[in-house]
What we know:
mainly beta; 11 strands
Amino acid sequence: QVQLVESGGGLVQAGGSLRLSCAASGRTFSFNAMGWFRQAPGKEREFVAAIDYSGVNPDYADSVKGRFTISRDNPKNTVYLQMNSLRPGDTAVYYCAADSAVGGNTSSHTLEYDYWGRGTQVTVSS
C-alpha cells in the first residue's frame, strides 16, 4: 500500500522557517515527479512547488519563489520543502503529492498527481 506521510509542520512566527518532509512507502518514487500543495480554510487547494525525478528545474508558485525550496533524496524516497521568511498568508495544511507516471514532468495541477498524503498544519503568527 502506497503511503505519503508529511511531517515538520507547526507554529512559527512571521519571518521564521520550517522544513517539511514527505516520506513515501509502498513503492519507489525515485523516477516520478512529486509536489507540495497547500489548502487554507475556505480556500481551494493550491500549488506550492514541484520537482521532477532528476531534481533539476523545480517549479514554484509565484507566491513562494525565493522563499521556499523543494528538494528530494531518492535513496530515502523522501521529498522536502524548506520554507523561509514565512508569512501569515502561508498558513495552511500542506500536502505532499506524487505522480504515478515514470519520468513525468512537474505539474501545478492537482489532477496530475495520483497519490496524496494527509497533510501537515503550518501556522504562521504575525
